[in-house]
Design brief:
4 copies of one chain form a homotetramer.
Chain A lengths: L2 H27 L7 H22 L5 H20 L4 H21 L1
Protein name (chains A, B, C, D): Four-helix bundle copper-binding protein
InterPro entries (chains A, B, C, D): Csp_YhjQ, YHJQ-like
Pfam families (chains A, B, C, D): Csp
Chain lengths: 109, 109, 109, 109
């Protein structure tokens, strides 16, 4: 595992966690959370998985790639859901999720 | 800090985290998340603070009581919000939050 | 997934996280951390994975069983390492890890 | 709270968490963990507090500044301990901790 790919994936995970937390808070605060329930739910799982994968990579854990594999799955689901909504925070979250999914897939491979 | 009070507070925090996660998921899944947005938002913070306080107590960290003080605050806010709603998961969460707030206040004192 | 098995696995994960945090702190504080480095390292990963699996189970996440599968792996590794040491905190941690591994294996099945 | 200072503090927290995880793993893996026990212990708390503060800031939580205040304290303690050791990972961790402490102090003010 090259150090360069490792750092890139940690950064992608941290960026995605921030985007997901922000998207969930915005979805909750704009007066139509019922319509955004699936998005909020996925944001919540995705933010956590991204943070956890980044944590294990940063410490060089033997279990980092196993977490990256799960993280890639939830990132792909979250990207697909967010992409369906027009709000800027959803579109930005979809981009961050797709980049993180790709970085995690490379780590898990 | 007596071992007994320590264990009791960890247990109260873990129980409260479970109740908050369950309450947030139920609030998101019952078709009226817009009306429950404040509850979901507090559940999210409260679940995290409870887990983090429990983590620092379990490891005997010097920062455990500082986290317990913040945890008590969010537990009280979450209890007040959940108590306003009739759903069983909200009422049960309010009880768990109040018990955790009391246990954390004792630790932080 | 029956509610009973679900609650039991959350409890096993929380108990194991507490045992691992305590074991790591004790290993660090008893003056022979160099000999216990592998134990401390596994305790650290195991505590985190247990907390994360419990979190996803409590919220009814679609990714809970994937985390339980990873959690079972690290619990088995941590149990094997802890069982090699005579200290009470290591022996207790080994028991908690084995119980958690079994509960997580059932969830992941 | 300006958006700019907010983003800067999240970044400082994430950078510090990475530095602390790496420092702890290196301290555990270099054959003299007993001498580094205080450093490992502080790295563990500091990494967690940094991640937690970043999480609450990213979601715009009402409790973010309270966590930043605790995070600043542990960052200062971790910086002081790491600065005492010559290893590159300790020196780099001390720098990351000092920067994070300053950013968190500004947020908590």
């Amino acid at each position: 595992m090259s150090h360069e790919r490792f750092d890139e994936c940690i950064q992608a995970c941290n960026d995605c966690a921030i985007a997901c937390e922000h998207c969930a808070s915005a979805c909750l605060g704009e007066g139509h959370a019922t319509a955004m329930a699936a998005c909020i739910r996925l944001d919540r799982d995705c933010a956590d998985l991204c943070r956890w994968a980044a944590t294990l990579m940063a410490r060089g854990s033997s279990y980092a790639t196993a977490l990256c594999a799960v993280c890639a799955e939830v990132c792909e689901a979250c990207a697909a859901e967010c992409a369906r909504h027009d709000a800027a925070h959803c579109q930005q979250c979809a981009v961050a999720c797709r980049q993180c999914a790709e970085a995690c897939r490379r780590m898990a491979a």
